[in-house]
Structure formats: structure tokens, C-alpha cells
Amino acid sequence: RAGPEGHVGLVSYPRSGNSMVRGLLERLTGVLTGSDTRPDFTLSRSLIDYGMEGEGICDASVEIVKTHYPERLGHQAFPVARALVLVRNPFDAIDSYFNMALTNTHNVSLDESNYEVFAEEWRALVAHEIRIWARFYTWWFTQDVPVLALRYEDLLCHPEDMLRRIISFLRDVPYDAVEEAAPELWHRAQDILGIDSRHIGPYQPRSGGIGKSLRHYS
């Protein structure tokens, strides 16, 4: 359940790996994560079909709630006491957003020819979204709440360190003492480390990877 001060927000610019992190957090804590997205939207329904049972829930029954605010408004406001701020490099995040916008899916990749067919739209999207990406993170890192920055790339490349940081932040325990201070979570973290990152989230991710989108930029 949410604490008396409010929820832990899982906040990110879209396509920064929040579904993967929600899957990780649900495995780690053993409880569902929520979101402020309307559950009847097509992409939300697909997440529910993939097993994200907390989609659309942001009341006191859930502790951690995904949001893209202020990039977009959720269907219901909720108080955030602390925030996990998920950051992915904007080249990959914006490219993944372009794929999502054109396919209306989370995990289908465009054929390379679409970058030529929709070249004008692609250039306009990049110019527009990079400003939104920058304003989004400037907003969150200047709010008067405790935040933990989670780099998507570090979650893939340095998962043990990042899991330790997450546990330390969620349970207010020292980074070097999570084994003793939060043994149940640390035990679950060890199980998570044995899972391929592609299978941690609710669906098989598209093949974007780290830095592979650079070929689509001039």
C-alpha cells in the first residue's frame, strides 16, 4: 500500500523501459505496481493482457505507480512522496517512441524503409520530442521530493548495483547493508539476476537495444 505521504512514482519519458522496470519491481517486492494510464486505452489493454494487472490503478492499494507526467496527464492525479526517475538516452527513447506511434504496439519494430517513407515526420518528431525529453527531466530533478535516478543502460549492464540502489531507496536502508536490512528483497534480487533482462518485463521488448538507434540520426 501507499505510505501516508503518498506513492513512490516510477516516472519516465515514454519508451524508457518503464514496463521492464515495473516487471522488475513486481518481482522484487512481490506486489503489483500501478499506473495513471486509462486502462481502456489500446496500449494499456495490451499491458493488462501481458499480465500488468495494476494497469490504471493509482489509489492507496498500490505503493509504486508509473507515470509519464508532466509529459502527459494521467487519468487520475495521485500524490508522489518519492520518485524513481528512469532515464534512457534520448536517441534510443525517441526512436522507440516513433516505432510505438506508427505501430500502436509496445514491441513491434518498424521496417527500415519507414524511415525514408516518413523521413519528414521522423525529423519533425525528433526536433519536437528532444525538447520535451529535456523539460521532463529538468522538471523532475527540481521537485522537492527524494528521487533516485535509474539509467536504463545501467539496469541492463550493471543490474546488481542498480537492484541494490533500488532496495536502499525503497526501504530507506544503507546501500552496503541491504542484505541484512532487507533480506527478503535481497533474496528476490538474486533470483532476478538469474533472469535474462528480455524476460523481466511483461513482454518481449523490441530490438532497440543500447545505441542501435544512432543509425537513424544525421
Task: Jot down its keywords.
5 strands; 218 residues; Rossmann fold; alpha/beta
Describe the structure in your own words.
By secondary structure, this protein is of the alpha/beta class. The chain has one domain: 3-Layer(aba) Sandwich (Rossmann fold), CATH 3.40.50. It has nine helices and five strands; from the N terminus they run βαβαββαααβαααα. The protein has helices spanning 18-29, 42-49, 90-103, 114-117, 119-140, 152-157, 159-171, 178-181, 183-193; strands at residues 7-12, 34-35, 64-67, 80-87, 147-151. Strands 2-3-1-4-5 form a five-stranded parallel beta sheet, sandwiched between helices. Strand 2, helix 2 (42-49) and strand 3 (64-67) form a beta-alpha-beta unit. The longest helix has 22 residues, at 119-140. The mean pLDDT is 93. Belongs to the WSCD family. This is Sulfotransferase domain-containing protein. InterPro entries: P-loop_NTPase, Sialate-O-sulfotransferase.
